[in-house]
Structure formats: C-alpha cells, structure tokens
Specification:
By secondary structure, the chain is mainly alpha-helical. It has seven helices and no strands. The two termini are 18 Å apart.
C-alpha cells in the first residue's frame, strides 16, 4: 500500500514519533520498576565537566538526528543524511574500516533487492486478486457468515492472527 498508495515518507516518519516517545517512556517505567523492586542503587553522579565532555564527543552523532529529520521534513533527499552518517562512521569515529565498505554495500544491495522483489510480487499478486474478484468473494462470504460487524471484525482478526503466526515477512 505504501509503495503504490502515494503515502508521504515524511508523514510516515512523523506518525512514528508519538509511538516512539510512548515506547521510550514505557521502557523507562519498566526500568524504574525493576530498579525499585530489586533495590538497585545508582552509581556516582557525573560532574558538569564530565557531562560537557561527553556531550562534545557525542555532538556530531546527536546532530545526525536533526539532519535526518530536517532532510525528510524539508523535502531534501535522504542521501545527505547517508553521506553525513558515512563521514561520521568512517572518517571521524572510525567505527567502519575502508575494507568493510564493499561487504556493507553488497549486503545493502541484497537487502534492497529482497525488499524490491517482495514489493513487485505483492503488486502482481494484488493485480491478480483484483482481476479474479477475490476481495469481493471474500467479503460476500464474510457477510453471509454474520451480519454483525463486530463478529465479522472478530473473524478477520482471528484469520490475520492465524496467517501471521505462520508467515514470516522478514527478508
């Protein structure tokens, strides 16, 4: 749906902000709960100077978040963020070695090819199902089972649970 449905990448990105914040808050609450339950004590408090030094070391990585958000919301192509991340990881922090780059590029190509193949096959399957009137057949069969919309939604959810249990969509 996203590949063919003209859904804005920026809108999808922004739609994930609130769930991300909520998940982060829930993780914080679980950590606090377990720390209080098990009696974990905090470590030594950092001085302002230590915090400042750590912030200066992490500033470029923290700035990457603003480059990505600004690039997506501003309509700038995301290659700028990729180039910035490349410069950070290879040239500044030296976490990625030059000899690792060909392998990383090959793995990226393989993963992209798998995702594009899945999109192509799903588009073809969608076209075939539309031509064969399968959605209309399924909806008429569901309506004949029950006229109650709650029961129909319950049946759909049970079917999705069963199908999702045995189907693995990860490349």
């Amino acid at each position: 749906a996203v590949a063919c449905g003209s859904v804005s990448i920026a809108a999808m990105f922004i739609a994930g902000v609130l769930p991300g914040i909520l998940m982060g808050l829930c993780i914080i609450l679980v950590c606090i709960y377990y720390a209080l339950k098990n009696g974990y004590k905090g470590g030594r408090r950092s001085t302002f100077r230590e915090i400042l030094v750590a912030f200066k070391r992490a500033f470029l990585s923290l700035f990457l978040m603003f480059v990505i958000i600004g690039g997506i919301l501003g309509g700038v192509f995301t290659a700028v963020a990729v180039a910035y991340a490349f410069v950070l990881s290879v040239l500044i922090y030296r976490e990625v070695r030059w000899k690792d780059i060909p392998g990383i590029l090959v793995q990226t190509g393989v993963t992209t090819a798998v995702v594009m193949f899945l999109i192509c096959v799903s588009s073809a399957m969608s076209w075939i199902m539309t031509i064969a009137n399968i959605p209309q057949t399924i909806s008429s069969a569901l309506v004949t089972l029950s006229g109650n919309p709650v029961v129909i939604l319950l049946i759909i959810n049970i079917l999705l649970l069963l199908v999702g249990t045995f189907m693995d969509m990860t490349p």
